[in-house]
Amino acid sequence: MATDAAKNGVRRSLVARWRDRADVRPHFVVCGSDSLVYTLADELATSGRIRLTVITPPDLRPGVPDLNDLRARGVKVITAARLDERTFRDAGLAGADALALVMPDDMVNLHAALCARAVEGDLRLVIRMFTTGLAYGVRRLFADCAVLSDAAMAAPAFVAAALGEVAPTHFRYAARTLNVAKRADVPEHSVLLTLATSNDGGRMTVLPAEPAPDHQRPTDLVLAEATGSPAAQAVTARRLARAGRRRRPWLSIGRALRVGLTRKLGIAVLVALALTAVSGALLSHFTGVSGFWRSIYITLLTMVGSSDVEPDNTPAAQAAQLVLTVAGVALLPLITAAVVDGVVRTRLALDRGEVLKVHTGHIVLVGLGTVGTRVLRQLTDLGLDVVAIDRNPAARGVEVAASLGVPVIEGDASRAETLRAASIEHCQALVVVSTDDSVNLQAALHARAAREDIRVVLRLFDDDFAQRVQAAFNINISRSVSRLCAPAFAAAMLEREVLATIPVERHALLVATVPVRPGSPLDGSPLGSADRVESTRVIGMTAAGSEWVDWLPDPRRVLAAGDEIVVVARRAGLRVLREQATPPLADAAGQ
């Protein structure tokens, strides 16, 4: 029985290998263990023109959707404890076109890349890296290699959302630097294309037809030529930084007293002070003492027991003197106890990472992992005041925060008292980018309860959940890092002519060049046939044999083989345009 089962297994394996060899579609392999591996595979699986294999470890990180959804779409999913040569051979990497290594560990990805090159030398590598210096060295190590950082790509979007501005996206092509901005922030003559616009109901349209001048809105998102003027984000950051410098010192004094004094000891000190003040006032009144300083003088001396017995005083004056002396005897040790207790409690609070100073106009950042560290650096680079929170004292960004002079509160951001310690009531925005969806959502809801108008930017791993949370809880912005970054990783594997990836809300627009091949449907067609509203928009073209780019060319111009079109497109639109630019025979051979 066992022998028959083994023979059947070998037979099925041989059949599977024969089918793989018979499938001439381009083969792509993706390796990862967190939500990015699923989102990237989902992006790639939308194209039916490729064969896709996903390799994951046995223990996936929290937040990864069910991989069976990928299997149902024809994706081959393999589980392997180690990314080595044997694993890659079993996955059919030999002869593959591209490999994406998106494990959340730089060293694991680098080791896997070296193993993969031993299996298939002519292979395009797309590697996820956090460490900038290491990424530069890896690019030089491999000939055909793209090194991307999801943290570096996502951080600008979170920073822009915290400031209420457009994520800074710019790229240079044909001696021009183009950037993304609001229409109101750039001169009209520098605008190349409207990327997105919203109607009165708030519905966003991506890549619309160019609106008439009387229908243009200042908030429209446009692609424009950079003019050298300060970016709107930098202007907003400077305004917020100036607002943050308007300190209210009495708030900090109040917090320090609350931290340093227990409630009972504080009440006892206040009662003793009140008795002292009232008794001193009565004593001065009944003994006929005039003048403020003389009243203080007699009160203090009597309080410390330096007064003489006055048998000739009235009973009221004697009673006031007696109460004042007893209150003084009680007050002095109470003050001593309060000072000692305050010093001890304050020291313990500082050791726990509590921030005693009340900040105003600042940004509260929750989570100092890979994404949080990038967000922290960018916020401080913009001159903004930041208070960070992380429950892990060994988090990646804690040391960075210390070097930047940013206070870090060690605690659970899902607890209201932790957020209050970060002065959540007086901040400009809350940016929550920890790796725990539950903590992130609870922190956002506590912030909303503390102040309704606070701007909340929330990271959630599941994109569908992020959309629903944003609508249900009135969160300003909720983002999935993997959804933000997956299009760029997919573009690096599929479309080497992609110049930039532009995030627009939950959409990702690609700026790409598409060459017109001889005999393709576009060869001999007007340029306008490549332009599709809400799908693909042409912004320029280069004639065959020329290096000069004609920006916003005449749509009636007839295309010829060798021409190159510059477009801004959605992924599906770019795929359709590439098919139009490919001759039918080559297209059939590619299938």
UniProtKB/TrEMBL annotation:
Residues 25-148, 360-481 form the RCK N-terminal domain. InterPro entries: NAD(P)-bd_dom_sf, RCK_C, RCK_C_sf, RCK_N, Trk_Ktr_HKT_K-transport. SUPFAM superfamilies: NAD(P)-binding Rossmann-fold domains, TrkA C-terminal domain-like. The lineage of its organism: Bacteria, Bacillati, Actinomycetota, Actinomycetes, Micromonosporales. Coiled coil: none annotated. It comes from the Bacteria. The chain crosses the membrane at residues 265-286, 319-344. It comes from Paractinoplanes pyxinae. This is NAD-binding protein. Pfam families: TrkA_N. Residues 499-583 form the RCK C-terminal domain. Keywords: Membrane, Transmembrane, Transmembrane helix. PROSITE patterns: RCK_C, RCK_N.
